[in-house]
Amino acid sequence: RVWLRGLGDVYKRLTLAARRFSAHPAATVGGDLYEAVASDHGVRVVIGDVRGSGLTAIGTVATVLGSFREAAHDEPALGGVLRRLDRALDRELRRRARLEHPSGGPAEAGHPLAEEFVTLLLLEIRPDGTLLTVNCGHPWPHLVSAGAEPLSHADPLPPLGPFPLPTDLPVRHCGRLLPGQALVLHTDGVEDARDPSGRFFPLVDTLCSIANGPFTARTAASDIQAALLAHSQGPPADDAAVLVLCAEPSRTVPPQSTGHEPCSTAEPSVQ
User: How far apart (Å, rounded) are the C-alpha atoms in residues 151 and 164?
Assistant: First the structure.
């Protein structure tokens, strides 16, 4: 687990826990990635899914996470973090293309490098609980409180890799994470997991069940893991990852609202 580090520590007012599910029991790393950094700008989180598998996917994971760990501290705006990740991924794909095409030409259409992409979600939690997100083709997190609901229903940007980022990045304001609430981030391998009869994993029902009783980040992550493995009756067909962030009731700021606020575009566009 060189690239997927454990997240059991408390980052400021948040408790975090993560679980990773591999489609291959012997595998220790794959194409799913996550990380959390406590920066001067707030707690910043990334979760993503690299297309493909094997050594190339691991190299892409390393590139994205390495860039995130620096950009999360350096960039004042969340959109700036995304642009740094996009440039790092572009450099990595160009480097690999040069290795496979010594003449210096780009990877041709249809070549695996020309089609490689990363779905990615960036999340920022400010000291007052304010939530900012920017999403590139990734499943939206779920807010767990009295029940469970997606943090947003907005259309995400395309995944990183195939297309340039737009001039105006839609960084979204998604209300606040209030004391006692949790966010569940995941890769698409969770929702896509099927049981032997072909039914998809009931993620929302599972989260609602967790919300009905007291929970911590660690117990929630463990409960999701147990429910997924029981549903799939063994390892899922695809790699999957879950990251749970809980706001500690006794240490977060007092609630400023009675419920989850709708998402809206937040920061000024990053040029």
Answer: 25
How many other C-beta atoms lie within 10 A of the C-beta of residue 25?
Answer: 7
pLDDT in tens, 82-116: 999 999 999 988 887 777 655 555 445 444 455 68
C-alpha atoms less than 13 angstroms from C-alpha of 125 in its C-beta half-sphere: 25
Q: What is the 3-state secondary structure (H, E, C) of the chain?
A: CCCCCCCCCEECCEEEEEEEECCCCCCCCCCEEEEEEEECCEEEEEEEEECCCHHHHHHHHHHHHHHHHHHHHHCCCHHHHHHHHHHHHHHHHHHHHHHHCCCCCCCCCCCHHHHCCEEEEEEEECCCCEEEEEEECCCCCEEECCCEEECCCCCCECCECCECCCCCCCCEEEEECCCCCEEEEECHHHHCCECCCCCECCHHHHHHHHHCCCCCHHHHHHHHHHHHHHHHCCCCCCCEEEEEEEECCCCCCCCCCCCCCCCEECCCCCC
Task: Tell me what pLDDT residue 111 has.
Answer: 45
Which pLDDT score is estimated for 10? 58
The alpha carbon dihedral of 227, 229, 232, 233 has a sign of negative
**Distance, CA of 190 to CA of 21 (rounded, Å):** 9
Tokens encoding 81: 């973090």
Residue partners of 203: CB distance under 8 A and separation at least 6: 142, 186, 190, 191
pLDDT per residue over 173-206, tens digit each? 999 999 999 999 999 999 999 999 999 999 999 9
Pairwise CA distance, residues 86 & 189, whole Å: 23
Q: How many CB atoms lie within 10 A of CB 140?
A: 20
Q: Which one-letter amino acid corresponds to residue 74?
A: D
Domains of the chain: 10-251 (3.60.40.10)
